[in-house]
Specification:
single chain, mainly beta, SH3 type barrels, OB fold (Dihydrolipoamide Acetyltransferase, E2P), 2 domains, seven-stranded antiparallel sheet, 1 helix, Transl_elong_fac_P/YeiP, Transl_elong_P/YeiP_cen
Length: 153
């Protein structure tokens, strides 16, 4: 019976992370699954009216794995799977070639991230706080602080 309880808990956590909504309900920066890939909604849905059968909804999406941007068209009554995104705070430690090393201040775990995924790496300083978004254990987005104090020599 203990095995059944663990399966139920895992199933419950999966359903809590993903849910289905109508394409009209999507907002900017929502993370959806489109054709098996995690995508970020870049712009609010645009509705185009049709005669019969409802309208068409066009979304501007960005693939979170390779960063490519594209547009997808959905039927107005179609539902899409939305994934929850969890944000955490990391500390920037250093840059090692084409990798950036970030540390979790609570557990002291270090993660290596490709420098191409971090915007404006040249402005980061040691021990700077960075916000990192994860979805289903996968790195989704990195946000650096809006303002950075730098010294010009």
């Amino acid at each position: 019976m203990s095995g059944l309880g663990s399966v139920f808990r895992e199933t419950k956590s999966i359903f809590r992370r993903c849910y289905s909504v109508n394409v009209h309900s999507l907002k900017r920066r929502s993370v959806i699954k489109h054709r098996g890939r995690l995508c970020n909604v870049e712009e609010a849905p645009v509705l185009r009216a049709r005669g019969r059968g409802g309208g068409l909804v066009t979304l501007s999406l960005r693939d979170l794995v390779n960063g490519s941007r594209f547009q997808a068209t959905f039927n107005g009554t179609e539902n899409v799977e939305v994934s929850e995104v969890s944000w955490s705070e990391k500390l920037f430690l250093y840059t090692d070639g084409d990798k950036v090393v970030l540390m979790d201040p609570e557990t002291y775990d270090q993660d290596e991230v490709p420098a191409s995924r971090v915007p404006h790496v040249e402005f980061l300083a040691a021990d700077m706080k960075i916000d990192v978004a994860h979805c289903n254990g996968q790195l989704v987005e990195i946000q650096i602080p809006s303002y950075v104090e730098v010294e010009v020599e």
